[in-house]
């Protein structure tokens, strides 16, 4: 399972965000994507998620069928409960509600969100909401997980709990790439890819 | 996703408020009231005007002659399309002097035809023979329906029934007369026809009912029994060109846009669900169920409102057609809401999720 970027470059408004980027991402590793704002971290994630095409270069997916993106801003349904968010990907896999709900609760417990299971998304704190997004991604169990600035909008305590959660996401059947500025997250990763423009 | 899970997700979205069913229902209700029910109200108003016109006797066209009307030809006009009924009238010198009103003699007008059905505007024949009085005269004489009228001479005359003849601006000669139903033999003075739907051009038909006038006799005069509501109303044109008709046609389209907007407003949620593995066709079905929860009750309310409106208007003849028109428009509105919702889901692309998020 691997993703290979070959001489990727992307131009935005006549400016190259990055050029000649060749990278290989493999399973069971946490990758940190670092660089100042505007260096193209989110753009690179968009390219890996096939949401945009690179201006140049190619991308190859080897035994990776699905890429799941957890955004910097938690995008839940305000009125639905935390458990409902996690149960949805399970229902989408064909499970009955009676099977999906206990599994969803179990996943929430593993992410330290057991007490929030029945609370609506809009009542969760920033840290809880971000961890819920990760828990939902885990219920989907994607082969490639892209996480954009997971701690950017969180206080220190919440950020720490999210970082711990991220470490637990490492899996032999998953490639995990995190775009971040947070040193604690960077420290938790196995590889660091720096997109800081070379002057 | 299993069907039960789809229904369960739809139910939870509605109950939690994620569907915003009340908001969309109120918007659709306002559109429905402003277009569909407004059009029904306008149609009812026009039909009521037409009914009032007919009830006032304005749809009765008369031909007055010096005794040259052939009653057979007059009554035969009933077979002409658009002529609801006809009767021939012969004014006599004979009068009835009721004991109760000796100073108010009632001139006898001989009628060939069915005067009660004609003057009542009833499509069903009544076929009363004998002497008839107007309802007002019968009330003045203290009579109720068929009864015997005591005359000043001491005789008693059997009254077979009454006929309506309101004092509403119509030619009032029959208001204080006694009608005597006679066979259509000899010549009569006048031929009256009730034309419905009203068309003044039908007055030309009356010319065929009169024989040539003798030398020196006055020429036949055609007239309308009641001219206070005008001589040329254009109910049909007013009905088919009513301004609200266009609004009623646009109503379902506006509701389709609401259906679309209700789902497009949730494009981030929908694209996320697609990314989480929910198939588009499953989401279409789920959103149809959710749309039904707010669109169907509103459609039911509009139908109920229309039913009450039409019942209140008491338009027995045209009520089924008007209700059928409203029902088809409401049905179209429901289909449009569902179609708009389906289009809303189909337009969402999971690959644009990031863009949807940024646009939030």
UniProtKB/TrEMBL annotation, chain A:
<dbReference type="InterPro" id="IPR017871">
    <property type="entry name" value="ABC_transporter-like_CS"/>
</dbReference>
<keyword id="KW-0547">Nucleotide-binding</keyword>
<dbReference type="InterPro" id="IPR003439">
    <property type="entry name" value="ABC_transporter-like_ATP-bd"/>
</dbReference>
<feature type="domain" description="ABC transporter">
    <location>
        <begin position="3"/>
        <end position="199"/>
    </location>
</feature>
<dbReference type="Pfam" id="PF00005">
    <property type="entry name" value="ABC_tran"/>
</dbReference>
<dbReference type="InterPro" id="IPR027417">
    <property type="entry name" value="P-loop_NTPase"/>
</dbReference>
<keyword id="KW-0813">Transport</keyword>
<dbReference type="InterPro" id="IPR003593">
    <property type="entry name" value="AAA+_ATPase"/>
</dbReference>
<protein>
    <submittedName>
        <fullName>ATP-binding cassette domain-containing protein</fullName>
    </submittedName>
</protein>
<dbReference type="GO" id="GO:0005524">
    <property type="term" value="F:ATP binding"/>
</dbReference>
<dbReference type="InterPro" id="IPR050166">
    <property type="entry name" value="ABC_transporter_ATP-bind"/>
</dbReference>
<keyword id="KW-0067">ATP-binding</keyword>
From TrEMBL, chain B:
<feature type="transmembrane region" description="Helical">
    <location>
        <begin position="246"/>
        <end position="265"/>
    </location>
</feature>
<feature type="transmembrane region" description="Helical">
    <location>
        <begin position="289"/>
        <end position="310"/>
    </location>
</feature>
<keyword id="KW-0472">Membrane</keyword>
<keyword id="KW-0812">Transmembrane</keyword>
<keyword id="KW-1133">Transmembrane helix</keyword>
<feature type="transmembrane region" description="Helical">
    <location>
        <begin position="21"/>
        <end position="38"/>
    </location>
</feature>
<protein>
    <recommendedName>
        <fullName>FtsX-like permease family protein</fullName>
    </recommendedName>
</protein>
<feature type="transmembrane region" description="Helical">
    <location>
        <begin position="322"/>
        <end position="348"/>
    </location>
</feature>
